[in-house]
Amino acid sequence: MLKPNRNYAELKDSYLFYRISQKVKAYLADHPGERLLRLGIGDVSLPLCDAVIQALHEAVDDQAKKETFHGYLPECGAPFLREAIAAHYAKRGVSLAADEVFVSSGASDELGDLLDLFDRSNTALIMEPAYPAYVDANVMAGRTIVHLPSGEKDGFLPMPDECAKADLIYLCSPNNPTGSVFNREQLQGWVDFANENGSVILFDAAYEAFIEDDTLPHSIFEIDGAKTCAIEICSLSKTAGFTGTRLGYTVIPKALVRDGMSLNEMWVRNRTTKTNGVSYIIQKGGAAVFTPEGQAQIQENIRVYKQNAKVLMQALDECGISYCGGKNAPYIWLKCPNGKSSWEFFDELLNKVQIVGTPGAGFGECGEGYFRLSSFGNTEDTAEAAVRLKRLLKQKQ
Predict the structure, then answer these.
(1) Which domain holds residue 387?
(2) Is residue 2 in a domain?
């Protein structure tokens, strides 16, 4: 008899964003035509930049002519894109070989697929609050999870100690959901800890393009010793608006070896077995992101989102609400007013001022009492949301 994966029965509640969507659906059913201001999920609202659109059109035209038609591409990524990404890292002083870069269909896919590299007996350290997929993917795999709590005292940036020992270590900087960012000294502490304990860091750098403080690292490979203990997962979703286009990349250094096995070589074997790679058209569009024109244009979009964050932060400042994030990240992590739970605050925002955000409880126990706002909405909605927030929160003072 077929046996299902019983680990799925261990998953908690429904997936966070599915639960939010169900609440929103129910509200709209009772209030048809109501205008909601969506500051919840991290979906972008600005279109792909001109350089990317032009490259996509050119790639489509290539597929229409026999002499430029492309069928299957290398499973690990087209050389032109892998080389462009390696050159991008070089500008930050990080030396990578092109074959240490793996093109993917997005960071979310990769974060789950990478677990194939590790035995189920390995423990996974997840600092919380955390992106829920980190936890769920390991629960599905039957892996033991070590939860590392964080809070206001450490700026939601916990450091390793004896209680933090684990085989896999998840780090996200800038962090989702808190918007906090590790500095170089803090990341060095984690890298040293991982190397001393033989652990592997899974470094989620999906939001690195939002860092504006030049003293903060964009990549873990800016840290001494990281190539022997870290894998970096990156995304073009928030950086360049590829949420509906799907493209990302992962860096696995050749120096990363465990128990005599090269994780780089293992991942080549995995990708050539389990995927036919990303399409030529999408990779051509992705390569345009790393041109001078593409970089300038995506920064224009990022500036819009960062201005949205400033508008929301100003509103919270006026209301005396404490928060972190916003400056070097697209998320603002605020403390729920008047001791409300995060789902209570969600319901209040939805029902009283028609704002949709993300309850902190969905990011783990440490997220209870907090709430995440996204700056990826359009400018007009964000400005209106700030007005409504002030109206609601000032009434409670």
Answers:
(1) 13-42+296-395
(2) no
Same domain for 148 and 284, yes or no, is: yes
Are residues 113 and 248 in contact, defined by beta-carbon separation less than 8 angstroms?
no
- Residue 243 in any domain: the answer is yes
CATH of the domain at 110: 3.40.640.10
247, pLDDT greater than 90: yes
Cα 204 from Cα 164, distance rounded (Å)? 18
pLDDT band (50, 70, 90) for residue 14: low
Q: Is 337 within 8 Å of 321 (Cβ atoms)?
A: yes
The mean pLDDT of 107-121, rounded to a whole number, is 95
**Cα angle: 285, vertex 291, 293; to 5 degrees:** 100
* CA–CA distance, 101 with 122 (Å, rounded to integer): 25
* Structure tokens given for 277: 């790679």
Residue 384 has pLDDT above 70, yes or no: yes
Question: Is pLDDT of 395 > 80?
Answer: no
Residues 265, 369 within the same domain = no
In angstroms and rounded to an integer, the radius of gyration of the C-alpha atoms of the chain is 21
- 314 and 77 Cβ atoms separated by less than 8 Å: no
Closest CA to 39 of 357, 391, 371: 357
Q: Note the pTM of the prediction, 2 decimals.
A: 0.96
